[in-house]
Amino acid sequence: MTGRRDDRVTPFERHAEADFLRGLSVLTGRRFHERARGCGRLKAKRNDGDREMSGKREMRKIILGVLCFALFLGGCAGNSRSNGKKITDGYASSNPSELPPLLSTNSSTDSPTPPFSGMTTAESPSKEEIPTIAFKKEGDGGTLAVWWWDARILKREKEKEAYLEFLKKNSVNTVYLCYPDFPQEEMVAFVRLARQQGMSVCLLSGDSSFINKDSAGAREVVEKYLLYQQSVPQDARFEALHLDVEPHQREDFNENRQQILQLYAEYVEETAEIVRGAGEKLEWDIPFWFDDYRVINSDGEEQDLLSLLCDNADTLCLMSYRDTAQEILAVSEKEIVLCAETGCKVVCGVETHSAEGDHVSFMEEGKGEMYVQMGEVYGELCRRMGQKNFGMAVHYLDTWYALKD
């Protein structure tokens, strides 16, 4: 056979090994530096047997393989950029001179994000960098709530624990939980568990049919709620009955708007008389445009629908679904003013998923931007409401949890 023997070391191999290990020494210190000093003296000598030489051949193959991968990795890393910082494998610096010598300092701006899971950028944060709500401070007097519609999760321990941990990390202190049957034993356990995490629980229910005079559903919800509150210890009770009754969801709303809103107003007053009359708190979800309508109250007098709601609620939770702080505050202005005057709590809600347009939810913007906008609204509410009777709520848990960062 002709050609060089496999046990020979070429000058390229010798210098490549030396350069590679010198580069590693920058990253890992003296250990590789000592090995690097000996690399230049590698020689092709036969030993008494083939075992030692075979080991050297395998070592050269491994080193050359790692060298090729390191050079490829360095080229990709050097070509990536995030907010002015060069990204390497576990090494970020705003100063190119601080980069390890084996890695490229090419600062091309049009290269894609490097396809390595160990590399992170501002646009693709690591798990430790996932945004969380920071504007809610302990003792600031505000509510931070979430709608929790799917009670089936309560029976799936891992999902339930993951959701509660997520809410705790985001400073949530109130859960609007929809549990149609709410068996007493399960509900007692969950309310107590939530309280241990610093969260109160409101029973969430509602349907547009509740406004009908013969609605068995509306009557049953109130009766079961009051029975539960009277049957369990104080630490297992709900914070309030939270009703999401939206008359505008009826198919005939556009044709019979005034009549339907009148039925709604009567239902609100009747429910408040029973629930608040029993010493319990009552909360209503409402759209932000209810301030445009007037109804006849139980005294036979004409009254703004929004004013009637304030008179018959402990909390008004606005579906102020917009994706900027300015717009959220603008659509909620009349409600904020009236609640400040009457002492009713006002909670501004944000949406995380919607098919009604980009401006309605934060589905397009993601968690980080939503938290920024929420923080501005929260601060303004705190200022205007005198650090009490205010808050924000996120609709709803499942889509919030899955919302992009």
Walkthrough of the structure:
This protein has 405 residues and is α/β, with parallel strands linked by helices. It has 2 domains: 11-122, no CATH class; 130-402, TIM Barrel. Helix content is 41%, strand content 15%. The chain contains 12 helices and 13 strands. The protein has helices at residues 11-28, 30-39, 50-78, 157-169, 184-196, 216-231, 257-275, 305-311, 325-331, 333-342, 367-384, 397-402; strands at residues 81-82, 85-88, 91-93, 142-148, 174-177, 200-205, 241-243, 282-287, 294-296, 302-304, 315-319, 345-351, 390-395. It has an 8-stranded parallel beta barrel with strand order 4-5-6-7-8-11-12-13, surrounded by 4 helices. Helix 1 (11-28) crosses helix 3, helix 8 (305-311) runs parallel beside helix 10 (333-342) and helix 9 packs across helix 11 (367-384). The chain is globular, with a radius of gyration of 32 Å. Residues 1-56 and 70-127 have low confidence and may be disordered.
**Ends apart, CA distance between termini:** 62 Å
Kindly report the spatial arrangement of strands forming the biggest sheet: 4-5-6-7-8-11-12-13
Q: By helix and strand content, what is the structural category?
A: alpha/beta
Rg calc: 32 Å
- List the uncertain runs: 1-56, 70-127
Q: Give the number of domains.
A: 2
Number of strands: 13
Coarse morphology: globular
Name of the CATH superfamily of the largest domain: Aldolase class I
The description of the largest β-sheet is:
8 strands, parallel, barrel
CATH fold-level name of the largest domain: TIM Barrel
Under CATH at level 1, the class of the largest domain stands as: Alpha Beta
Q: Can you give the helix content as a percent range?
A: 40-55%
CATH architecture of the largest domain: Alpha-Beta Barrel
SSE order in H/E notation?
HHHEEEEHEHEHEHEEEHEHHEHEH
